[in-house]
Records
---
Amino acid sequence: MEIKLEPEISLKEYQMLRGTTSWAKLTDRQVKKLLKHSAFKVRAKADGKTVGMARIIFDYGYTAYVSDVIVLADFQGHGIGKMMMEDLLARLKAASEPGGFLNVVLQAAPGKSGFYEKLGFTKRTEETGWGMCLRYNSN
């Protein structure tokens, strides 16, 4: 299996991949905006078929948010997610202030925190400040 990473993803591909998850459904208008305003995106193709994507939202100061890391179920366990994350994190570091502080945050889907821990992410604790979220109209 040949895996190729590309820096863009189409609305159709994004909606197809997101549709394989239990996440809230997004309108095409929302997807157009989120793709436009994502600092970094990556699409994974296996033998020409889109099988994964991920993106980072970045303020170009000190905070970045990893969002929408998706790999089709049949292609999980082959290092595709790791390849995508390493690609995004390398581009993020290259765009960051040399020697400056960078805070990269994410919300892991249930059962996926171990994947991110292997990449160096740590779980927040009461001492380091719990993460929180506020959702409107979520399913």
Note: The two ends are 35 Å apart (CA to CA).
---
Amino acid sequence: MPKIKTHKSTAKRFKYSSTGKLMRMRQGKGHLRRKKSPTVKSAYSHAHVTENIGARRRIKRLAPYLE
């Protein structure tokens, strides 16, 4: 069976944590930064867990070798 090609932008946007959770960064970090408060800007620098089961399945299909 041939290898499956990885969707490169998906592989760059998502990572798995050491415990196996699917992590992502928030979008829009650098856009219109002057108008945002420091609290909002600091929220962009933390990784968030992807809870949606459908999104997990889709990402596993797009990037099968990510784990």
Note: The chain has one domain: 8-62.
